[in-house]
Amino acid sequence: MKQAGMNKVGKKVLAAVALCLPLLASAAARDDYARQWPLQLPAAQEGAYRVTLDGSVYEQTRTPNLADLDVLDANGKPVPSMLSAPASPGIGPAQQHGLPWFPLPSSPQARDVASISEIAADGSLRRVQWSAAEVQANAPAAGYLIDASALTQPLQALQLQWQVDSPLEREVRLEASDDLRQWRAADGGVARLLDLRNNGARVLRNRIEFAPQRARYWRLLVPAPLPADFRLLAVQAETSTPGVATAWQWQSLSARRSPDANGQMHYEFELPGRYPIARADVELPGNNTQQWRLESRDRADAPWQLVAGPWVAFRVASAGSDSASPPQELAGLHRDRHWRLTPVDGVDAALPTLRLGWQAESLVFVSQGQPPFVLVAGSARASRAAASVQPTLAAIRQQRGADWQPSVATLGVPQALAGDAALTPAAKPRDWKAWLLWSLLVVGALLVTGLALSLMRNKPARD
Questions:
Q1: What Å distances lie between residue 371 and 74, 78, 402, 408, CA to CA?
Q2: 240 or 197: which carries more pLDDT confidence?
Q3: What CATH code would you report for 95-239?
Q4: Count of CA atoms in the C-beta half-sphere (13 A) of 378
Q5: Given pLDDT bands bounded at 50, 70 and 90, which one contains residue 45?
Q6: Is the pLDDT assigned to residue 56 strictly greater than 70?
Q7: What are the DSSP calls for 98-166, one per residue?
């Protein structure tokens, strides 16, 4: 009887150990993240979605590659997802097209382009004939007529190639027409062309950007005379790609002076999040010009890495209008938190403002699992798993057409999860298997010992 009782006790101990095994598993996935954003999906359920990231997400993430950014289903399980570049998924690069162009004389009669133009059946300009009275020998053009009749897509930019030795700074206006008689101002078609040189450095602005629009003919007008040695060489048109271009956003950072041991003045800045920085600009009060070198690093104790420069940044106000250098393009994306500007000529100018430009990226995910879905970010313990999302999207496009895009999901109001606790690395995990094995061995040894003692006590005495 006692032996049978001990067997029952042993079975109960083993059963209790088995019941405790699930309690040794790790906590739910969402408990490893600092914050979540409920995802609002369209009414029609789709298989794939993309959600555009905003500043609150970038400022919550901690890892440089945004690995601590994921999408979870209603049960807290990660779903297949991938980070997508600022351009919408599936949208290709802009296309460049060389366009025919004709100089416009400065005479008032030259504005009536239709009366002296020969137009082919397809709408292209064969010839623009000026009279001798309209054209002054060696006189610079007052503008240019550009033939875009061969293009069917909207134009979003013109890029000019020229030859000039004299300093060039001219405001230009862009107009559009479909019949060479009725002209309309292009939306955003006012720009300033620059070509300045000094001590081997050059500031060049030869690109005119405007809202995408379609027109057969374009007229570039230059109110002030061009330099006598200016020669236009080519005109390149950029056609807009399908979809809406991602808008540029800017983070304006205040400077802190940081002289080094050699007396060189530096200006340091701190970025509040893991923004995908691709452009930089410098602002100073009043009229100014300065050569800058821009560096960045991820940690305060890491060495500085050059990301741009030296380049000339300037701002000059004259005749009621401002001229400023364009933002500096950076090579690739930079998510560093620490930035430093250094004046190349060593001038300790007023405190500059560093403007860092970025375009919002998207997280594309497959709606696998149970809705609702949430975006989670900020973790020193969890990271997004690699998933075959891109091949899945490519396969869907083969079935539904090249224009298919994942449906758009939007971010809801952020909600706190584990908060700062999720930003602390987890303690080194214990080897629970070894502990469990040793526990079972100890329990088994105790059971065997108990059974042996019971048998010894119940052993019948010898006659």
A1: 5, 12, 28, 15
A2: 197
A3: 2.60.120.260
A4: 22
A5: confident
A6: yes
A7: E--EEEE-SSGGGG--GGGEEE-TTS-EEEE---TTT--TTPPPSEEEEE-TT--SPEEEEEEEEE-SS
Report CA Rg, the chain. 34
Q: In whole angstroms, what is the distance from residue 387 CA to residue 374 CA?
A: 18
Nearest to 47 by CA among 365, 367, 364, 362: 367
CB atoms within 10 A of CB 251: 17
Prediction pTM value: 0.58
Q: Say which residue the tokens 């999906």 belong to.
A: 41
The predicted-structure confidence for 270-314, as pLDDT tens digits, reads as follows 999 999 999 999 998 888 888 999 999 999 999 999 999 899 988
- Whether 238 and 158 have beta carbons less than 8 Å apart is answered as yes
At residue 132's C-alpha, the angle toward residues 127 and 133, to 5°, is: 120
**Fold for the domain defined by 252-359:** Jelly Rolls (2.60.120)
Q: By three-state DSSP, how is residue 308 classified?
A: strand
In the prediction, which pLDDT does 441 show? 79
Q: What CA–CA distance (Å, rounded) separates 270 from 240?
A: 35
Looking at the chain, how many residues does it have? 463
Q: Does residue 374 come out as left (phi exceeding 0), alpha (psi in the -120 to 50 range) or beta?
A: beta
Instruction: Give the model's pLDDT for residue 430.
Output: 63
Domain ranges of the chain: 29-90+361-423, 95-239, 252-359
Instruction: List pLDDT tens digits, range 107-135.
Output: 555 455 544 455 665 556 655 555 444 44
Q: Which of 406, 387, 378 is nearest to 78 (CA)?
A: 387
Helices 432-457 and 2-20: crossing angle in degrees, nearest 10, is 170
| Pairs from 129-134 (Cβ < 8 Å, separation ≥ 24) | 130/105, 133/107, 133/109, 134/105, 134/107, 134/109, 134/110
pLDDT bucket at 68, cuts 50 / 70 / 90: very high
Q: Indicate if 252-359 has the same CATH topology as 95-239.
A: yes
